[in-house]
């Protein structure tokens, strides 16, 4: 089931998400809903707080080549265990900040541990777009948005645009 994505500013996007105590059928269904929502948006990552659920759950699929087989990843309680000294800069966007993009610098490579949908501990090292995406999504679990890395003036400008967009969306629904 496709879910609604929260648009910034929304206080739920700034809250710390709770750890998932154990994997239930409801949480697996939520992960499936989130993948469906992410692909429909379209996006390459989505965190549970973005759909109003304050649990440490992210989904991602950074396989972007035309005709490539999708590689969906579901992560419960993900956390970075190591990151490289080397840095990368990517122009990031966010489904909670539609049409807004800015360059953000992050570690070029990260090692992440998480529980998969069966409750098994997994770990992997990500680089390139995958590294940026997984860090961006884990930030959501900590109440952090990519605009929090920007200078205050740029962040305020984007926030004002989002407030205006939310007003326009509310008017269209009325």
Give a quick summary of the entry.
This protein has helices at 25-40, 128-141, 152-173; strands spanning 45-47, 57-60, 73-83, 87-94, 97-107, 109-115, 121-127. The protein has 174 residues and is an alpha+beta fold. The strands form two sheets. Strands 1-2-3-6-7 form a five-stranded antiparallel sheet. A two-stranded antiparallel sheet has the order 4-5.
What are the salient characteristics of this protein?
174 residues, Peptide Deformylase
Number of E-type strands: 7
* CATH homologous superfamily grouping: Peptide deformylase
Our measurement of the CA-to-CA distance between the termini, rounded to an integer number of angstroms, reads 24 Å
Show unreliable segments: none
Portion of residues in helices?
25-40%
And the CATH topology?
A: Peptide Deformylase
CATH architecture: Alpha-Beta Complex
Strand line-up in the sheet with most strands: 1-2-3-6-7
Q: Taking all residues together, what is the mean pLDDT? A: 95
Report the principal-axis shape: globular
Order of helices and strands: HEEEEEEEHH
Number of domains: 1
**Helical stretch count?**
3
Task: Identify the CATH class.
Answer: Alpha Beta
Radius of gyration (Å): 16 Å
Structural class: alpha+beta
Strand composition percent? 25-35%
Give a short account of the largest sheet: 5 strands, antiparallel
């Amino acid at each position: 089931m496709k879910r609604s994505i929260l648009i910034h500013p929304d206080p739920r996007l700034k809250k710390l998400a709770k750890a998932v105590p154990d994997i239930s059928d409801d949480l697996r269904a939520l992960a499936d809903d989130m993948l469906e929502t992410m692909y429909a948006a379209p996006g390459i990552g989505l965190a549970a707080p973005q759909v109003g659920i304050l649990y440490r759950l992210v989904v991602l699929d950074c396989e972007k080549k035309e005709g490539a087989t999708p590689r969906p990843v579901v992560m419960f309680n993900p956390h970075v265990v190591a990151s490289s000294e080397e840095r990368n800069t990517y122009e990031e966007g966010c489904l909670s900040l539609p049409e807004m993009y800015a360059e953000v610098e992050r570690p070029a490579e990260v090692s992440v541990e998480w529980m998969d949908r069966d409750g098994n501990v997994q770990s992997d090292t990500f680089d390139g777009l995958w590294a940026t995406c997984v860090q961006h999504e884990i930030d959501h679990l900590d109440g952090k948005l990519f605009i929090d890395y920007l200078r205050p003036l740029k962040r305020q400008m984007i926030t004002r645009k989002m407030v205006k967009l939310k007003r326009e969306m509310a008017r269209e629904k009325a």
